Amino acid sequence: MKVLVAVKRVIDYNVKIRVKADHSDVDLTNVKMAMNPFCEIAVEEAVRLKEKGVATEVVAVTVGPKAAQEQLRTALALGADRAIHIETDERAESLAVAKLLAKVVDEEQPGMVILGKQAIDTDNNQTGQMLAALTNLPQGTFASEVTVDGDKVHVTREIDGGLQTVALTLPAIVTTDLRLNEPRYAKLPDIMKAKKKPMDVKTPADLGVEVASKVSLLKVESPAERKGGIKVASVDELIDKLKNEAKVL
Amino acid sequence: MSILVLADLHEGQLAGATAHVVAAAKAIGGDIDVLVAGEGVQAAAEAAAKLDGVSKVRVADNAVYAHQLAEPMGALLVELADGYTHVLASASTTGKNVLPRLAALKDVSQLSDVLAVDSADTFKRPIYAGNAIATVKSDDALKVITVRTTGFDAVGDGGSATIEAVDTVVDNAQSSFVKQELAESDRPELGGAKVVISGGRGMGNGENFKLLDGIADKLGAAIGASRAAVDAGFVPNDMQVGQTGKIVAPELYIAVGISGAIQHLAGMKDSKVIVAINKDDEAPIFQVADYGLVGDLFEILPELESKL
Ligand SMILES: Cc1cc2nc3c(=O)[nH]c(=O)nc-3n(C[C@H](O)[C@H](O)[C@H](O)COP(=O)(O)OP(=O)(O)OC[C@H]3O[C@@H](n4cnc5c(N)ncnc54)[C@H](O)[C@@H]3O)c2cc1C
Ligand SMILES: Cc1cc2nc3c(=O)[nH]c(=O)nc-3n(C[C@H](O)[C@H](O)[C@H](O)COP(=O)(O)OP(=O)(O)OC[C@H]3O[C@@H](n4cnc5c(N)ncnc54)[C@H](O)[C@@H]3O)c2cc1C
């Protein structure tokens, strides 16, 4: 079976973000960008499925500007076989991304699509679910274990109260949680090889999808800053402060 | 305006989150209906009918909705959404799993994790792990929204809504429930507790988390953890606080052996009072803590327990 993995270019998770002075958005000039951590986990899972002989081909796809090809090359270095870049400089939000991915699913007919459960920039946690609805496929979100068993896949999901396992007919959509696996690092020879792997470039227009959204971003602000407090010298002082100053005990 | 709230259930009972989502619906204004969907959910429906501000509770009680699997729940919501201007659910793992399916099938965007209502079409939501707050306006005819419960105080219990059965039954041949392992605990839910005490990698192992038990008992606290503690297998995943775990905003949050990574802070920095216990006096957690105590947690915790 073919596995499609969606990867997103986002700000590196170590970077402390700044809001622009005019409050129009977050300032992304010259900040380090990387593959969304949940997408790394998605690529790793797809590559492991191939190593286990369950998957025959791993195709990585991204929607984004030209520079997002860096993240596709990373996916190729980690073991994806080929890549599809849907190039757009527009702000493509979850619904548009899901529509574009649905077209790719139509063309590629994968047995499974793996996405991250959320992107750490917009923190939407929507794209996989939307893709599942648009393609009329079942979904296993927030996965911490994925086991393919014949024409079904068992997905263990991290839910609020603990863990839930569902069985889905294939093809299915899976979104990754943090504990699904530990992604490997790309080795230098693989990074070199990745440069020669095929990459197909398309535009949203080629796929007949309108990227514009009805949601507009009016303003971006920094959250109310918490001022650091004081250091107390002992447990006694701590209890005293909590009782008499903060009045929470 | 007319708003449909999808009720959150916990083992068939109405979960506390729903009263917060109804509060968000009240902030938008208009008629508020609550949908209770599941199997054997009459008691939950009756509890929802008591929530302040609810006019009608719609109950879809059928085996196909058991465990609120995404596929049948999404299909049910698509059937019921007509006539509503807003559909709301809590940003729980159920709300997050189900609502985007409705949005996609109605060809509208979803606004995730809304923490404030500016008007019926303009909302505030956190982005970049809460390091920025975006104000977004939706011109979609139907607004599909998940609500961050810590942003809205729960409504009270004064209501007496009518209860109406929904007989829509959808098919689901695509997904089935296999099993569930829910953590059993006598302690309050992390999301609703007034006091939370969390342990991090500094706890060293799962056994040492017992050091938090006595303190939690005395304070009526829920126990949380950092991702490092969960990843290391000290405690189960549902205890994780942070960007990708639970978001909490208790009166008092005590962080023990937690360094204060931004992803952890994203889950607790709206707490009213924060206490940090850490042996490294430069740990970033102290930058957000109201009261910091530098020292070895293995000495401090027993002393704290005995003196409380
Ligand atoms: C308020 C706001 C401001 C924005 N500002 C900008 C901006 O300034 N510049 C800009 O370029 N975009 C901007 N966007 C778009 C945004 O970066 C996302 O592309 C979009 O919102 C998708 O949501 P998400 O990534 O949070 O989805 P999620 O549902 O959180 O993502 C889950 C998974 O879906 C997959 N996925 C998501 N997006 C893509 C993608 N593009 N390609 C491949 N797979 C993907 C990944 O596997 C990812 O792990 C903005 C969006 C919003 C809501
Ligand atoms: C995409 C992504 C999502 C993430 N989501 C989350 C999330 O939701 N929640 C989360 O928590 N993290 C999350 N993380 C992980 C986060 O970046 C940190 O790695 C994690 O929070 C660190 O946990 P910690 O503070 O327990 O461990 P460490 O950073 O290792 O800190 C341990 C602390 O314990 C102290 N300590 C050690 N021994 C003692 C002692 N005897 N007495 C007192 N103090 C002691 C040390 O001084 C240190 O400060 C995420 C990361 C990524 C990339």
Give the helix/strand layout.
The complex is a heterodimer of chains A (249) and B (308).
Chain A: E1 2-6, E2 9-11, E3 33-35, H1 37-51, E4 57-64, H2 69-78, E5 82-87, H3 94-108, E6 112-116, H4 127-135, E7 139-149, E8 152-159, E9 162-169, E10 172-176, H5 188-194, E11 199-202, E12 215-221, E13 230-232, H6 235-244
Parallel strand pairs in A: 1-4, 1-6, 4-5, 5-11, 6-10, 7-10
Antiparallel strand pairs in A: 2-3, 7-8, 8-9
Helix pairs in contact in A: 2-5, 3-4
Chain B: E1 2-6, E2 9-10, E3 13-14, H1 17-28, E4 31-38, H2 42-49, E5 56-61, H3 70-80, E6 86-90, H4 93-105, E7 110-114, E8 116-117, E9 122-127, E10 132-138, E11 143-147, E12 162-165, E13 175-182, E14 195-199, H5 210-219, E15 222-225, H6 227-231, E16 252-256, H7 262-265, E17 273-278, E18 291-294, H8 297-307
Parallel strand pairs in B: 1-4, 1-6, 4-5, 5-12, 6-11, 7-11, 14-15, 14-16, 16-17, 17-18
Antiparallel strand pairs in B: 2-3, 8-9, 9-10
Helix pairs in contact in B: 3-4, 5-8
Bound molecules: flavin-adenine dinucleotide (2 copies).
Architecture overview:
The complex is a heterodimer of chains A (249) and B (308). With 249 residues, chain A is α/β, with parallel strands linked by helices. Chain A has a single domain (1-243), classed as HUPs (Rossmann fold), CATH 3.40.50.620. Chain A contains six helices and 13 strands. Chain A has a nine-stranded mixed β-sheet with strand order 9-8-7-10-6-1-4-5-11, sandwiched between helices. Chain A has a two-stranded antiparallel ribbon with strand order 2-3. In chain A, α2 (69-78) packs across α5 (188-194) and α3 (94-108) packs across α4. The longest helix of chain A is centred in the first third of the chain and has 15 residues, at 37-51. The radius of gyration of chain A is 21 Å and the shape is globular. Chain B has 308 residues and is of the alpha/beta class. Chain B has two domains: 2-165, 3-Layer(aba) Sandwich (Rossmann fold); 190-307, TPP-binding domain (Rossmann fold, 3-Layer(aba) Sandwich). Chain B is 24% helix and 29% strand. Chain B contains eight helices and 18 strands. Chain B has helices at 17-28, 42-49, 70-80, 93-105, 210-219, 227-231, 262-265, 297-307; strands spanning 2-6, 9-10, 13-14, 31-38, 56-61, 86-90, 110-114, 116-117, 122-127, 132-138, 143-147, 162-165, 175-182, 195-199, 222-225, 252-256, 273-278, 291-294. Chain B has a seven-stranded parallel β-sheet, sandwiched between helices. Chain B has a five-stranded parallel β-sheet with strand order 15-14-16-17-18. In chain B, strands 8-9-10 form a three-stranded antiparallel β-sheet. In chain B, α5 links the parallel β14 and β15 (222-225). In chain B, α3 (70-80) crosses α4 (93-105) and α5 (210-219) runs parallel beside α8 (297-307). Chain B is globular, with a radius of gyration of 20 Å. The chains are: A alpha/beta (249), B alpha/beta (308). Chains A and B meet through α3, α4, β7, β8 and β9 of A and α3, α4, β7, β9 and β10 of B. Bound molecules: flavin-adenine dinucleotide (2 copies). Residues 6-8, 25, 36, 38-39, 42, 61-64, 91-94, 97, 115-116, 118-119, 121-122, 124-128, 217 of chain A line the site of one flavin-adenine dinucleotide (FAD).
